Amino acid sequence: MTLASAHVKSEAERLGFARCGMAKALPVDEAFADHYKAWLEAGCQAEMHYLENYQDKRFDPRLLVPGVRTIVSVAFNYYPSKEVPGIAWYAQGKDYHDLLRQRLAQLMEAIGAHGRCFVDTAPVPERYWAWRCGLGWIGKHSQLVVPQVGSAFFLGELYIEEEVDVYDVPMENHCQRCRRCLDACPTGALESGAFNSRKCLSYLTIENKGELPSWAGEKMGDMFYGCDRCLRACPHLHSLPTDEPLLQPSGALLSMCPSDWKQLTVEQYRTLFKGSAVKRAKYEGLMRNIQAVYPLSES
Hints:
By secondary structure, the chain is an alpha+beta fold. 34% of the residues lie in helices and 11% in strands.
């Protein structure tokens, strides 16, 4: 069965996705695979060793999902209407994994397709497929850039058995000589031409389970979960705020002030971040970050 790509995109829009595109399920470009392998060889993945696993399935979707013929890539806007200082935009509301998985399953059913849904939980090169599906290009900050909208998007994929009548084409990179994201990064994590997780404040405050490097505290500003500086600096950032209720910060979060964060208890942490992506850092990791931003010696 061949699906109408216009119908797929129409259903994706109805379900709240801001962008949708499709590409044939073929092995990734050799240049992408070589760049990824070199990135791993340089140790830029830091302690995220899961990125080293299942490279065969990462590079060939047909090995991950036998019988797949089409990759459907979607983007979901998370640009906030209200902002909790200190927390990355993507984590202002509830955990996006559950929200996107549900919407992707609804999209699969709506278009009558068969396959699997993925949201950042499998060896899927999400930004690569978003580029192949024509949603945008991969910027110098290593994130997908949607033209005149920016990078404040969650990505998700359907790996489906059906073909579509019209496949999208990759978008040309429009970063050109712009280096606003490079200049905005306080640690130089982007300067080598390959995103270096070991220097990235988002990695250090979220994925990193050890101590913060001695230099990190003075670079963090008021951000104790994530960073967002490169995302905010992009001249293509013109998103309208998301209207998804689950991605809005709670009143309790919005009311927090520095003194509240410094005195945060385990019980408060569990209540504030129930069902939130912030729990990825765990209480100990979050307090490590908070104390770097708001030293206990300060009044």
